Amino acid sequence: MSQKVEKPSLSGQRLKTRKRDEKEKYDPSAFRDALIQGINDTEGDLELVSKFLDVSKLDYRRYADVLFDVLFAGGQLAPGGSIVEDPDQTKVSRTDICVFGCEEDRNKLKAYFDVFNKLLRRYKYLEKSFEESIKKILVFLKGFKEDEQRKLAIILGIIFANGFCKAQVLSGVFEEHLVKEGISLRFATVMFRSWLEDKDINSVVKSLKTASIDSRLLELFPLNKRSQEAFVTHFRKEGLDSIANFQNKQQSFEVKKELQNILSEMMNDDDNPKEIVAYLVEYMKKQGLGDSEIVIHVWNTIMAQVEWNKKEELVAEQAIKHLKKYSLVMAAVAKSLEAEIKLIVKVQEYCYENMVFMKVFQKIIVLFYKTDVLSEDSIMKWYNVSHSTKGKSVFLEQMKTFVEWLQNAEEESDEED
Asked: To which H or E segment does residue 283 belong?
């Protein structure tokens, strides 16, 4: 049997460490110092700042938070918003060539936006870090001077208007301590004004909705001042009528949504239609709602209570039985000609969009006529002028015989008079 031969050893020999295995020391202070030195060398020429940031070999990927701290605040931010000072007095640990060091002038602040614009276009991987930095800076709002808060609000309005940041970052503005001291409201007012100088209210609303904060604007006010009236008064006084009008619409939407939820619960509990009507009338009065404002919401709520049959011949009977039960409720919110026509158009569009209801349209309208939900005037106006284009020929044909009957009945009535 052969003896096992030992492998030769490498004693006394040192293996070289490969460069990619060496971990570079994390040193944000060194990054900050090099960045500030490069920015200060431009003497405030923002074109040169952009060029420096473009050609610099600094590690933006690793120190992105420090990069944006310096560009916004002029130095590395400590928790709370103060600038981290270097213990070595010979080192320059801050710069005035930053957003906070700029004059409170929108055009000059726009030049700083151009710096961010060029930087993020050149280094796409910085986009997420940019948003994270803004989010952090907004939490530190209380630690900044009032003029710094305003400058930040102005440039943030420009950033949002140009689609360079998602409105989700604004979550920090709703922090309780910022709201309580009125900082959130002051900041938002300046930011909205700046945003609306570049874009219209539709752009603002779209961004807020995407971020799911369109329904939170009232939370910008301290609890003891938080009301719809206070909100509208403040923004109208600030010349931001479009924000006030949006909040009015938003509040109306929330009220109607609440109403739908309550009605749905009452119907699920099989409450008497008379009780539902009593609640509905009281709610409309309390919220200052007109019948034409909520007639569609009530229709949608009633129709959402049933799982409709897929067969045409069975769904008609099912629909008439269900709508007859709640005709009293529909009549309570279809008292004006405008509300009645809105309802007919909605029924038309519902039947068109739910194909199984295509042959049920006429039966629903006749039922509503017989139960005093709809008047002769509203049906005639719908037929002659106000109908929707959806399924127009089909539904007008369905209603032809009934409309002729109404016309003949009217003529006979005129002759009797």
From this structure: helix 273-287
For 42, counting Cβ atoms within 10 Å of its Cβ (0-12 exposed, 13-18 middle, 19+ buried), the class is middle
| Dihedral (CA of 335, 339, 341, 347) sign | negative
How many Cα neighbours within 13 Å face the side chain of 375? 12
Cα 161 from Cα 165, distance rounded (Å): 9
- Statement: residue 371 has pLDDT above 80: yes
Q: What is the distance between the alpha carbons of residues 151 and 72, in angstroms, rounded to a whole number?
A: 10
Contacts of 8 (CB under 8 A, 6+ apart): none
Determine the pLDDT at residue 99.
96
Whose CA is closest to 308, among 354, 348, 358? 354
Q: State the average pLDDT for the chain.
A: 89
Task: Determine the Cα–Cα distance for residues 185 and 153; give it in Å rounded to an integer.
Answer: 11
- Pairwise CA distance, residues 288 & 248, whole Å: 12
Convert the pLDDT of each residue in 30-56 to its tens digit.
999 999 999 999 999 999 999 999 999
Token code pair at residue 122: 């050149």
